[in-house]
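Reviewer 2 asked us to include a model.

Predict the structure of this chain.
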Amino acid sequence: MVLRRPPVYHLRKVTQMTVTPEMIKELREKTSAGVLDCKKALLACDGDPKRAQELLREKGLAVVNKKASRVAKEGLVEAYSHLGKAASIIELNCETDFVARTPEFKELAHEIAMQVVAARPTYLKPEDVPAEVLEAEKRIYRAQMADQKKPEQVLEKIIEGKLKNFYAENCLVNQLYIKDQTRTVQDLINDRIAKTGENIVLRRFARIELGEE
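Predicted model (structure tokens):
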């Protein structure tokens, strides 16, 4: 009896030749990561751009968390006016004057100032929303679901989801970026933190519109 060897299956491995310059360019446009980081992420994810984007985002968040406790007292104040009808002013902080003077940091501040005019945020972050405002929102949500007879734990989950939407509409850092609805304003800031290696903090903002009370 002749024993036959089982067939050997060779798994295809992604090589550097598989990752094209076009793939790297597309990933850079979506994440603002460096060329080498994009290439490594694509190789690690078998060329899958969505997985590579998520990997780079996770890497960026790790940097953000590491830098969050560092003091950011430098930066700049950026003002933006739209057709003389509405205007905003923001304070964006970083750790060093060197970073504050870079075109990329100035562009980030400008984009956030534009966001304030276009998206009309009321608060900077969820922690700034007054407790009485949150309670009023919860009462509204409960009244809307009064006839649904859902268990309390289910109602709480639904309310939690509605509050998340409330934050996304009213809190600047939680708002979707007006030029890319797949990212929030905080994502933009996190990307720049990962790029510069410095802590960056959006400190405050104000918005005025012609004729408003």
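The mean pLDDT is 86. The chain is about 50% helix and 15% strand. We have added this to the supplementary material.
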